[in-house]
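hey team, just a heads up i'm posting the complex here instead of the shared drive bc the drive is being weird again. everything in one block, sequence lines first with there labels, then the predicted structure for the whole assembly after. its two chains so it's a bit long, scroll down
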Amino acid sequence: QAFYKLHAISLDSTMGKDAARAEWDNPMQFVLACVSYAVGLGNVWRFPYLCQMHGGGGFLIPYLLMLVLLGVPLFYMELAIGQKMRLGSIGAWRAINPYLGGVGLASVVTSMYLCLYYNVINAWSFWYLFHSFQSVLPWAECPVNSNLTGHVEECERATPTQYFFYRETLDISGSIEENGGIHMGQALCLLLAWMIVYLFIVKGVKSTGKVVYFTATFPYLVLIIYLIRGVTLHGAINGVKYMFTPKMEQLANPTTWINAATQIFFSLGLGFGSLIAFASYNQYNNNFEKQAIVVSMVNSSTSIFASIVTFSIYGFKATFNYESCLERVRLLLLNTFDLAEDTISLENVIHWIAELNRTHPEQFASLGGRLETCDLEAELDTAVEGTGLAFIVYSEAIKNMPVSQLWSVLYFIMLLLLGMGSMLGNVIAVITPLSDLKFISRYMSTKTLNGLVCLFCLLLGLGFTTHSGNYWFTMFNDYGATFSLLFIVLIEVITVCYIYGIKRFEKDVEDMLGHRLNCYWKIMLAGVSPILLIALFIFYIVNYIQGGTPTYQAWNKELGKSVVTEYPPYAQAFIGLLLASSVCCIPLTALYTYCKKRNLASGKRERTVSTVSA
Amino acid sequence: MLVWILFLLCQVGAPALAQDLCQRDAPNGYKVRISLKTALGEDAYEWNQSEMFFFQATMAFAMRRHFQMETYNVDNIILCVQTSRVSFWFVVTSPDNTTMLIPKADVEKAVRMSRHRINNAFLLSDRTLEFLGIYPTLAAPVNPDTPPWLIVFGVVIGAVCAGIIALLVSSLLQKRRKEKGMTEDGQDEEDMQVKGVENGINLDGTYNRGFTDDDRFTKL
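-- predicted structure starts here --
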């Protein structure tokens, strides 16, 4: 015991910490911070999509299984490391093994990339929020063209919601090569987003601890309100039924299991260093075991809850579109055959189509391509994920609700809170290790450091507000964090279990919690999780190689829809740089530490020789 | 006798002539489509001959309003091809010469000018009283001086700025107050380090008297 305490004291002096590290006011703040970080936009827009893609209710089986096998043990491990080492990711991993301090550095680099592009989503949420304060929502109708004869062409070919997102919000260019200038409105919203992040973290965990009470709980209030609104909408039941109908044959598809694993992985925010940073501000004897289980359960149940809301709204939108389609067909039939208005109703449109085809075949044939086929299943099948779901599909559903301004404001406030909560974790993951470094904490206070980091991220983030900014955003989103995280967490697990040793880890945990490590944790951490992670890692590499040239969706204004385009060579090189820059930190730091140790050792030998000779 | 035959012919011929002038796809005629049930639902009135007469009167009014000199009458508006959809075709004849039709373009101008009055006469709108071929002019967009979103943005960013400044100033004041308090109380910081406060936890030990230096009194 005494040996351990001396070891800890020497660690503190090398790290240059103050006598008292900042702490959460109570364990509840820590739990809420973790919940606020883990429950983010992915719960709202990625999980419902995966659920729909992989067989509805049946997807819950691989999802919950991966939660138990992969999610909770790794979450537990990160909290344990943070709470034990009481340092950010760089310091913590350096303390575990000096050669593997690069793991912490890789986490910081990945978190930095995430910080850069994630706040752009918050900027878009602000833009939509501010535009909701109008009598007619701007994405409800197409704007009229200059000579007032009709609507703007691009809007006619696409839909008003798509036009508002691609043209008025982003003012997107045709491809990643056409840069254009900065969209001033977006830049202003990004500035606001970063100022709010700064406001939340300016006093360190003291201010963050108070903010998370709000950012963690208010989204649930909005989700409940939306659930009540959602299930009472006309046609919502179609969406919910569609989502929950289990298609068990999807379980045989390996992609289902892979997607379940990656969803758990990214949803909990493992590997970014945020969890280590949060836990480093805990009391030494905080019971993180119970908290790890609680936060993981809360995160997964929020995903399921959010997908019920999403699908009830989805069902409403699909039913609305289907009935609008039927109405258009009904009008077309009435006008072409000059029948009285009340002969065809929405219910018997299909029957009348067959009837009229039989009785007036030539006239029916003259309708030609104008007769649409209305299919509810096809409407529900248009699965969308990511920013498309949140900003295009949802806003389309909202514009058709009564009192749409209220629902719009509520929805975008919820998106903002979810996004801001996750941003807090991202920024703290970068700031905590930096403020632990001796040479930084000596020269500037935490407030100045926080301000500089926010300013730096804001200036770089302005690149995402240019006309081609959305394409760079997609690139960062798809490649910036996915592959490197898998690698980082794999190294983390192997380090803790095999290099640091599961026995030492067990002793540390017993020291903190007061009871021994349960065999569940031991089996999962030492056995199951590494195997699953290696399998995921291999799958990613194989998928990437098989995928050929990476492509992206470019918005074509003439056609009014997205077309698949290949990345130009310099963009592909940039993708490679993104992947390599975080992954390389690990071997490079190991090499650097090895060289430094060898120099030190040879230097010491020289000195001892000189004293003996003297 | 001849006059009487001519008169009879005119009586028969006129409507026949009128029929020739007004027909489906007439070059100078327009098709009108009325959707009463869509517009008024339960309160829809019945479309009958009186309503047709009303339409003729409204169109005559529209023509008079456009061509201020000419006196159009109900007889100058000829209707035909009525269907149960409630749609029909109409043509407009000149008041001076009932065989001459007013060209399509002029009729269109007249309709556009009085469209709002015509709609209101029938309690309908541009969408439910359609003149096929005459597209309604869309309402001009209202462009306020400051876009409304900028106003909300200004309010929010002002509040955030105020919050940041308040927090920074309050912490600065707190630090200054603590510094003033520190010089009065003495070296609190050093005491804490000596007492072994590590990681914010006081390592409270008990004072072991076995190591006190009281040997000096027992030296030989």
